[in-house]
Specification:
CATH topology: Nucleotidyltransferase, domain 5
Helix content: 40-55%
Structural class: alpha/beta
Strand content: 5-15%
Number of domains: 1
Strand order of the largest sheet: 3-2-1-4-5
Largest sheet: 5 strands, mixed
Radius of gyration: 16 Å
CATH superfamily: Ribonuclease H-like superfamily/Ribonuclease H
């Protein structure tokens, strides 16, 4: 017997076993780039963030993020099946670590792509369109360059935590559309 998606969501929400995940990295490929920040936001709680002291050496960040993620029964991401989880697993492999154990994973990008007909699919656009209180934090190319040059990740942590809060807001507005949850 398969559990209904909405019933499952009620259970993981009540047990505080659902979280929202976002990462910031130096680029898009885990073999040439590294993790800067990982934020994990438990449902209705403050985010937990892991950040590097120096770009490039992210073993502690990816190990700690893996450990944290594996305490939850369900993850919510925005294009996390296409980027965040594969990127983290690539970095874990780089450091000789096991990949993150699979969990039921709701990727809001795909969930909303197939349930809504909007002109744009970005998290920022959907947050604006749905009048969510939390909006996507913008960072200029200059700010990104400064982070990479100085290693100061304070602004990246703010962005990552903001993205998880926005993701939770998007989830709450569209949760009723979730009919299927896959690992």
């Amino acid at each position: 017997m398969q559990l209904d998606a909405q019933v499952f969501l009620e259970l993981v929400e009540e047990a505080n076993k659902i979280c929202f995940l976002d990462i910031e990295s130096t680029g898009l490929k885990g073999d040439y780039n590294s993790t800067l920040v990982v934020s994990v936001k438990p449902y209705n709680m403050k985010p937990i963030s892991f950040s590097v002291k120096q770009p490039g050496y992210d073993i502690k960040v990816v190990r700690d993020a893996k450990e944290c993620l594996e305490t939850f029964n369900c993850w919510v991401t925005y294009y996390g099946k296409g980027f965040d989880i594969p990127f983290l697993n690539t970095r874990l492999l780089r450091w000789g670590q096991e990949p993150i154990a699979k969990r039921p994973h709701i990727d809001m990008y795909y969930s909303l792509k197939y349930n809504l007909l909007t002109g744009r699919k970005s998290q920022a656009h959907l947050l604006r369109f749905l009048d969510c209180e939390q909006q996507k934090m913008d960072m200029s190319p200059t700010e990104w360059t400064e982070v990479l040059a100085t290693g100061d990740t304070k602004r990246m942590i703010q962005r990552c935590e903001s993205d998880t809060a926005g993701l939770e807001a998007l989830y709450k507005k569209t949760r009723h559309l979730i009919r299927e949850i896959k690992a």
